[in-house]
């Protein structure tokens, strides 16, 4: 069946969420979704080559991902909410790409972010006015279900994969789930892929012992969720035999967020004013991990991320008050993973020794 308006739409690579966008574009809008290659050092180098020096690493990565999407044949780019810097990154990315000579349609959702759902419909109308609202609504709900499943599977995987009797099988189940989401054409495909993965997880014995090491990972929205951007931090921790917990994901932060005022109430001894996009949530989660007697916290951010720089003294206070070690990791476009691996191993050795002393 011929596509209406025949758009070739792409979205910057963000963690494992591109399958959610793909599903909505293909099943909700009956358009072609162009999926660029997974991010590599080439992606980052492309973005760093054309981006201003002082912008954060996620902007460079996203810009490189957009270039690779255009190289892959996309003629339409979607930018989600402008990304940080008060939403101006959307305009900056578009200007850079057009200055480079690329021709494309561009939908910057920051221009439609008013808090009213009807304005998001205007954004979709701008993309494809012939799209059927009922079809989009149905696919949108199914895509949201897929997104929540992805977050739930990731949570269970990183909490348990380091303790599975058959780690290869546990990882294979996780990868199969992601592939199932890639191939999903309807809600039954989504549900079946999720149920198959969770059932497989349950079938594989997991032995954590009586006192497993538990680490909470928090930080800047993009870097903390994206495995390429943080050098696969969570998998590295899990491979060491650590139970890894990360609250920050799209489901928690965007769908079921308790609100700044509610979080401020629980951290009023540490925070009086709002400090930035994810700051309140990260301070709350650090305190939550400390109160649950986690063995350590890892704070992740990109170089120059001012909101996350601002909360570091607060995290330090929490660390001192609750006697919990905190490792601060800052990622830059020039970094390699060797130095981070060394710091991670040293952190693991330290919390493991503390655990033995405190048991």
Describe this structure in words.
With 359 residues, the protein is α/β, with parallel strands linked by helices. The chain has three domains: 8-131, Rossmann fold; 145-207; 209-359, Rossmann fold (3-Layer(aba) Sandwich). Helix content is 55%, strand content 11%. It is built from 15 helices and eight strands. The strands form two sheets. The chain has a four-stranded parallel beta sheet with strand order 2-1-3-4, with helices on both faces. It has a four-stranded parallel beta sheet with strand order 6-5-7-8, sandwiched between helices.
Strand order of the largest sheet: 2-1-3-4
Count of individual helical segments: 15
| SS strand fraction | 5-15%
Total DSSP E strands: 8
| Biggest pleated-sheet summary | 4 strands, parallel
Give the helix level as a range of percent. Answer: 40-55%
Whole-number count of domains: 3
> What is the terminal-to-terminal distance?
65 Å
Structural class, by secondary structure, is alpha/beta
Could you state the order of secondary-structure elements as H and E?
EHEHHEHEHHHHEHHEHHHEHEH
CATH topology name of the largest domain, in short, is: Rossmann fold
